[in-house]
Amino acid sequence: MDLASQPVGVFDSGVGGLAVLMEIKALLPDEDLVYVADQEWAPYGRRTLDEVRDRSVAISAELIGRGSKAVVVACNSASAAALHHLREVFPQTPFIGMEPALKPAAENTLRGAIGVLATATTFQGELYASVLDRHANGVEVHEVAAPRLAMLVEDGLLDEAESDLKELLAPMLAAGIDSLVLGCTHYSFLHDQIRAAVGPDVRLVDPAPAVARQVRRVLEESDLLNSSGGGTAYFTSGDPGRLEEQARELADYSIAAVRIEIEDQGIGQHAP
Ligand code: DGL
After folding, report:
1. Confidence class of residue 147 from pLDDT cuts 50, 70 and 90?
2. Is 113's pLDDT higher than 90?
3. Which of 9, 31, 141, 219 is 20 to 30 Å from 73 by CA-CA measure?
4. HSE-up of 83 (CA within 13 Å, CB side)?
5. Which atom of ligand 1 is nearest to the CA of 47?
6. Could you tell me what percentage of the chain is helix, strand and coil, using 3-state DSSP and rounding each to the nearest 5?
7. Percent of the chain topping pLDDT 70
8. How many angstroms is it from 121 CA to the middle of ligand 1?
9. What is the pLDDT of residues 47-97, one digit of tens each?
10. Domain with residues 102-207, CATH architecture
């Protein structure tokens, strides 16, 4: 079978990656996509780097086993823990990952102070250290690790997230940041709450559209663009009914999800 007509795999710990998936679908409507939400194991932000790395290998093996021509790690925590390793383990497959978008924030700051909101896992990884090193020269970077925001999004408790956000972001707002980098894909679904917490003058930097453009670039360069697909298959290691409901509530998306078992040697789909 022609490799270009194979799907692009996309994964996250849960619903956050749907925000990235939606950007990819808008930009590349003729690609077939396979989405895996590892909801049985969420949140990744409370796991060790080793745990998230092993889990990312198992999910990638499953996606590649299902024919994925490229894999999008639609999760900052998994990218921090595993991106480098995944490229070593699966050298034939292009991987597109996420890193906190410090570059555009640092380039455009007027006050020389920016904020980054992410999971603790994302801040621990070498990837974040290298992003800081490459892009934050001469800019004050205020970081805050949010222990439960991603789970509040998973649970649909967006109002509760608003009070967490006010508390978490107060110190960096007092320090005068003018841009806030959303360093976790779940936060795309908290735009309104984050806007309410930071006020009208702080620029929110969400990398999801840039990641979709990077997917297009990688597929173009490898001559892997599809012009005859457009379907998406949704899988979760948790409850498929819950993922369907979350997609509807968070994104007004109507999907049909199927449960999968994620194992080291690939995932076996549960018999109905
Ligand atoms: N959406 C993920 C990220 O971008 C992880 C959230 C979590 O599972 O803690 O970091």
Report:
1. confident
2. yes
3. 141
4. 21
5. 9
6. 50, 20, 30
7. 96
8. 9
9. 999 999 999 999 999 999 999 999 999 999 999 999 999 999 999 999 999
10. 3-Layer(aba) Sandwich (3.40)
Q: What is the DSSP letter of 142?
A: E
Q: Quote the Cα angle for 87-266-24, to 5°.
A: 55
Which of 18, 34, 71, 75 is the catalytic position?
75
Name the closest-CA residue to atom 2, ligand 1: 75
Q: Where are the domains of the chain?
A: 3-98+209-259, 102-207
User: Which residue's entry shows tokens 């978490």?
Assistant: 168
| CATH topology identical between 3-98+209-259 and 102-207 | yes
CB of 13 within 6 A of ligand 1: the answer is yes
Closest CA to 100 of 43, 46, 145, 53: 145
Give the separation between CA 104 and CA 211, rounded to whole angstroms: 13
Indicate which atom in ligand 1 lies nearest the CA of residue 75.
4
> What is the torsion angle, in degrees rounded to the nearest 10, for the CA atoms of residue 219, residue 221, residue 224 and residue 226?
70
3-98+209-259: CATH topology is Rossmann fold (3.40.50)
Ligand 1 centre and the CA of 223: distance in Å? 31
Distances (CA, A) of 253 to 148, 185, 198, 229, 246: 24, 17, 28, 19, 9
The DSSP symbol for 7 reads P
